[in-house]
Write a structure and sequence with these properties.
The protein has 188 residues and is α+β, with helices and mostly antiparallel strands. The protein is built from five helices and nine strands, in the order ββββββαβββαααα. Helices cover 36% and strands 20% of the residues.
Length: 188
């Protein structure tokens, strides 16, 4: 006997394809003489029916569509309290260090200890730019994956492979163990 794991219009991740889709139909397989279906398959509009084991539900606690909230990430300059600009002439921005803020009010984010910045300032500046650009890169990967999922046959294989890598990276960002409980604790 089988129970439906997903419902119509639910957003699911299709593991064999590596993309998100919406359940279009729930297809029970009935057997004569039984009150409940023997198996249940799902049509997600990708050309074949999928079993529940091939799908994963969208976690409502996870911030899967909150990329818009991340767009305010930016690099600001903080005054270096340990070294004056004359003492740090080899730094790209003497007398300051980068800080990535993730809030509209310049709170929170990423900063580096001064000793680490002194060791390799160019590397730290590069890391700050990568971190602040991450939300836009996530959005790019999401859009690319969505476009390729709609029509993968008419695209070059390189683009399809890039979309798969983007989907894999997004999955590694969003699918963390115990993410729901950790997010709830962080919100409190």
């Amino acid at each position: 006997m089988a129970k439906a794991s997903f419902h119509k219009n639910q957003k699911v991740f299709v593991k064999p394809v590596g993309t998100w889709a919406i359940v279009e139909k729930v297809i029970p397989q009935w057997v004569k003489g039984l009150d409940e279906p023997l198996k249940i398959h799902y049509d997600v509009g990708l050309g074949r029916e999928f079993a529940a084991t091939e799908l994963a539900a969208d976690k409502t606690d996870a911030p899967t569509d909150s990329i818009g909230d991340l767009e305010s990430w930016r690099v600001i300059r903080e005054k270096n309290r340990w070294k004056e600009s004359e003492q740090a002439t080899d730094h790209p921005h003497p007398g300051t260090f980068p800080k990535v803020v993730t809030d509209e009010k310049d709170w929170g984010g990423w900063r580096v200890p001064s000793a680490e910045y002194d060791r390799d300032p160019l590397k730290i500046e590069f890391q700050a730019r990568i971190i602040s650009a991450s939300p836009q890169l996530m959005k790019l990967a999401k859009v690319l994956s969505r476009c390729v999922a709609q029509d993968p046959d008419d695209l070059p294989n390189d683009i399809v492979q890039l979309a798969k890598q983007g989907t894999s990276l997004l999955r590694s960002i969003y699918d963390t163990p115990n993410s729901g409980s950790e997010l709830n604790k962080a919100a409190e």
